[in-house]
Design goal:
The complex is a heterodimer of chains A (204) and B (110). Chain A is α/β, with parallel strands linked by helices and 204 residues long. Chain A has eight helices and five strands, in the order βαβαβαβαβαααα. In chain A, α1 packs parallel to α5, α1 crosses α8 and α5 packs across α6. Chain B is built from five helices and five strands. Classes of the chains: A alpha/beta (204), B alpha+beta (110).
């Protein structure tokens, strides 16, 4: 696996987050990266072992902590995301030479929310997306641009326009076979495959 | 532990989990993938997309292009322009939500 191209995504998988996750996956593929999610792993072995293996194979990581709070009254916040972020930072801090080149981006909904819940991550690359896919695309694109200062990274407008057209083509072509809900709830692994073939053709 | 998909659909916490996603039936086939990919570069596109742009602006974008044909300050005026342009070629207007998802398709074929 190409360590330099792999991006570990640690984010919520709920319905509300899906528009953000889809935009993020599309963007990464558009920029030439390979998204790696625990959601696409086999369920046959212990998940956390697989996540640790994923972290080791990815130079880049994007962690979204926007659901690390109660989304509705009485609900508990999710702790999986901060836990996996801790594992990733540990890999960077205590890992070998290759792992010391890791780059980590932390996303949240509101600016400085992390200061209330996990202030020890101050000093890391932290951006907010306001739960808006277009803002997320811009922040992630700019982060990669800062990490590849010698290269010109395609603009966020291009990615956003392409993403909108992809969503239309995906829904349009699958609607004869699947319902709107089935398309909406498509497994992330399939969304990655459809994105990859569409982007390859779009860029020709 | 064995999960029954039908039973689990009633359980929102499981439905939101990665396990539920893995239980879902795979949709990608080579045939469907090719169909979706081919539409990325249509030979004769008749579609115009209304897409959110920078700030509060709205773009009208011809299908297959990565540049806006025109930029508007309101969504309504962008839709109006897209309709006027698409009607000349009996095309289609795709109105997108701010999330990129489809809000409405308007066919202007007579």
């Amino acid at each position: 696996m190409a360590f330099d191209q792999n991006v570990f995504i640690n984010c919520p998988f709920d319905k509300d987050f899906k528009p953000l996750l889809k935009a993020l996956i599309f963007e990464l593929i558009y920029l030439g990266f390979t998204p790696k999610l625990s959601q696409t792993l086999s369920s046959s072995s212990i998940r956390i072992i697989q996540i640790k293996d994923l972290i080791k194979t990815c130079k880049f990581s994007i962690h979204d902590l926007s659901r690390s709070k109660a989304m509705i009254a009485g609900e508990l916040p999710r702790f999986n995301m901060p836990y996996e972020l801790g594992l990733d930072i540990g890999a960077l801090e205590y890992g070998g030479r290759k792992l010391k080149t890791k780059r980590i981006l932390i996303l949240e909904t509101e600016r400085y929310h992390y200061q209330k819940v996990i202030s020890d991550i101050a000093g890391q690359d932290i951006e907010n997306h306001d739960d808006d896919p277009k803002t997320l695309i811009t922040k992630v694109r700019n982060w990669f641009s800062a990490n590849f200062s010698e290269e010109t990274i395609v603009g966020q407008r291009v990615i956003w326009i392409a993403y909108n057209q992809f969503i239309d083509d995906l829904n349009n072509n699958l609607s004869a076979t699947y319902t709107v809900d089935e398309i909406e709830e498509m497994p992330i692994g399939d969304f990655i495959k459809f994105s990859a073939v569409w982007i390859r053709r779009f860029k020709e | 532990m064995k999960f029954d998909k039908n039973t689990s659909s009633k359980n929102s916490s499981l439905k939101n989990s990665y396990i539920y996603d893995m239980l879902k039936k795979s949709m990608f086939t080579k045939k469907l993938g090719t169909k979706v990919a081919v539409s990325a570069r249509p030979l004769n596109s008749r579609k115009y997309h209304v897409i959110t742009g920078d700030g509060q602006k709205w773009n009208v974008v011809a299908d297959g292009s990565t540049r806006a044909t025109r930029v508007f300050t309101t969504k309504l005026s962008a839709i109006e322009f897209a309709r006027e342009t698409a009607i000349k070629i009996q095309g289609e207007v795709i109105i997108h939500k701010k999330t990129g998802e489809i809000e409405e398709r308007v066919s202007l074929a007579r």
